[in-house]
Design goal:
The chain is an alpha/beta fold. It folds into 3 domains: about 110 residues, Nucleotidyltransferase, domain 5 (2-Layer Sandwich), CATH 3.30.420.40; about 90 residues; about 140 residues, no CATH class. It is built from 13 helices and 7 strands. It has a 5-stranded mixed beta sheet. Helix 2 links the parallel strand 4 and strand 5. Helix 4 crosses helix 8. It is globular.
Length: about 375
């Protein structure tokens, strides 16, 4: 005889957790149990109480959000099943215009019982820490870009234009030190912008060094090393992909990974009409960004540069063969699409999508460390 099952939906907020419960059978009662503080002690007490009142399996669920995976890990350690739900994939009623914590908890419990919820992959604490470190570096890089943009905008407004070939080189920084203004306020602003850029660059470099220092202790280091066999996938790009995707083996084929990263075109077809638009942009924007950047390298002819050759040292022959096959195909594909008159951004996105297929194939041949 099957073990009785009870489905519990949790609407999680910073201070409170609303609880809805649905009995296991299809026409079973769905009721609201109330709210509890969002504290580990209260969560443990709630799970213990429900386990006594409802013998059998307790299946918890809540939406992914800013509160993280703490509740899921706590319930898992207590021996209960708990999934974290993708909010963007939850079924919704077009005519429903009322949203409350009570309704959200009841809806989660009801949909969980119906099997209509899509669970997200929950990383372990070590993987989550590495992913947060990588995202912190991404934010630092963005801060550098904004600080530089603010300085250039200020100089442009004051008519100070650099005539050299490239900015942010040693020559450009030397030129910045020679810029003079008549008003003292403008000179102060210039120096503050320069100092802000230097601080942002130092923070970016510190985070990069920490990633390099902690990488040997990460279970996905073998995967990171193997991904660097691809052209356009250096250390930071490989770490970002591994941190955002996690276990590549959970994807049965490369198309699933492409869809997960939001690199497949959206579609709105009805009857005889088939309409396809831009990419869905689902999943991690950080991973998609580094893939688009890496795809630009395939506009040049296929070759193994000295830097790429250094990354290939010590990698399995199968991994190196996949990487070279990717170069031959993607470089030719890039050239052919440009010759057809495709826009540069469309071509680069298409190349990034095909890159994911080769990245998936490489990741399947490498085992993460224990």
């Amino acid at each position: 005889m099957d073990e009785p099952t009870t489905f519990i939906g949790l609407d999680v907020h910073k201070a409170t957790v609303a609880i809805g419960i649905a009995e296991g059978w299809r026409t079973g009662e769905v009721r609201f149990l109330g709210e509890i503080p969002n504290r580990p002690v209260a969560i443990a007490r709630m799970a213990e109480k429900l386990a006594k009142q409802h013998p059998g399996r307790l299946l918890f669920c809540y939406e992914a959000g800013p509160c993280g995976y703490g509740i899921q890990r706590q319930l898992k350690q207590s021996g209960h099943d708990c999934i974290v739900v993708a909010p963007s994939l939850m079924p919704t009623r077009p005519g429903d215009r009322i949203k409350t914590d009570r309704r959200d908890a009841l809806t989660l419990a009801r949909l969980h019982r119906a099997g209509e919820l899509t669970a997200v992959w929950v990383p372990d604490p070590a993987h989550e820490a590495m992913r947060d470190l990588v995202r912190a570096r991404t934010h630092a890089v963005e801060r550098v870009r904004k600080a530089r943009q603010q300085l250039q905008g200020f100089l442009l407004r004051q008519g100070r234009i650099y005539t050299g070939t490239a900015t942010w080189t040693a020559a450009h920084r030397h030129w910045l030190a020679t810029v003079r203004f008549d008003h003292a306020a403008h000179q102060i602003i210039l120096q503050e912008y320069i100092d802000a850029i230097a601080d942002a660059e130092q923070r970016r470099d510190r985070l990069t060094q920490q990633i390099e220092r902690l990488l040997p202790t990460w279970s996905l280091k073998p995967v990171v090393d193997a991904l660097q066999a691809m052209r356009g996938v250096a250390l930071i790009t490989a770490v970002t992909l591994a941190a955002e995707v996690g276990d590549f083996r959970r994807f049965g084929n490369p198309r699933q990974l492409m869809a997960y990263l939001g690199l497949v075109p959206c579609e709105h077809s009805s009857g005889p009409k088939a309409r396809r638009g831009g990419i869905t942009k689902a999943g991690s924007g950080h991973a998609r960004h580094v893939l688009i950047e890496g795809a630009w390298t395939y506009r040049l002819p296929a070759r193994v540069s000295p830097k790429l050759q250094a990354r290939l040292e010590g990698l399995p022959k199968a991994v190196r063969a996949i990487a070279w096959k990717a170069q031959l195909r993607l470089c030719a594909r890039y050239k052919a699409m440009i010759a057809k008159g495709k826009p540069w951004n469309v071509v680069t996105t298409a190349i990034a999508r095909e890159m994911v297929g080769f990245i998936w194939a490489i990741a399947q041949r490498v085992e993460p460390a224990n």
